[in-house]
Task: inverse folding
């Protein structure tokens, strides 16, 4: 069965495995974590799991959250060192949030931090795929982010939309749902005038 309507994403037969990518601005606002919004999303994820669907979350937000906690300018993107430090601080808070909120619904969160190399190198790709498969078989909800604390410009996905697509391939997902505050799909950063 193929996915032809948005409602098919909630159909276990049409969409047995779904990757949900959540953009930074949906998770972290000017006042910090957008907890109420995340709680609503987690309730939707729990409903999908109750229907028997596998759900994999690709969660942005670590750099934004860490930058706010460290008081870094430019959202933690002033330098590579700032971004890496912000990611280290933000990722632990972000993974704790996912674990807490999924746990309220009786679900186990599993954190995977990936780099581009993890999905480019065949051996590492197979290891990541095996881990995802085992986690899903065990009923966990994998929460994935790019490992921004160690990623450099040369070895980055660049954005989690691309990471979500690659994770969907690795996990043999039926669909990828991109949740963002950006209208439409772009072939480059929407802030780029040529986008």
Result:
């Amino acid at each position: 069965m193929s996915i032809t309507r948005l409602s098919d994403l909630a159909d276990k037969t049409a969409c047995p495995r779904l990757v949900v990518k959540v953009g930074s601005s949906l998770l972290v606002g000017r006042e910090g974590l957008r907890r109420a919004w995340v709680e609503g999303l987690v309730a939707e994820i729990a409903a999908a799991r109750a229907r028997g669907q596998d759900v994999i979350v690709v969660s942005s937000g670590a750099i934004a959250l860490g930058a706010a906690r460290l008081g870094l300018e430019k959202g933690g993107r002033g330098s590579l060192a700032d971004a890496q430090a912000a990611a280290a601080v933000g990722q632990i808070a972000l993974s704790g949030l996912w674990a807490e909120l999924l746990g309220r619904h009786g679900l186990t969160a599993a954190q995977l931090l990936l780099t581009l190399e993890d999905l480019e190198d065949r051996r590492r790709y197979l290891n990541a795929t095996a881990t995802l498969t085992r986690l899903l078989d065990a009923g966990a909800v994998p929460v994935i982010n790019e490992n921004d604390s160690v990623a450099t410009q040369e070895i980055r996905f660049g954005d989690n939309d691309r990471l979500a697509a690659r994770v969907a391939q690795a996990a043999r997902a039926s669909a990828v749902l991109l949740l963002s505050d950006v209208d439409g799909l772009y072939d480059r950063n929407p802030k780029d005038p040529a986008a």
The helical segments are 24-27, 35-50, 62-70, 80-103, 116-120, 122-137, 160-171. The radius of gyration is 16 Å.
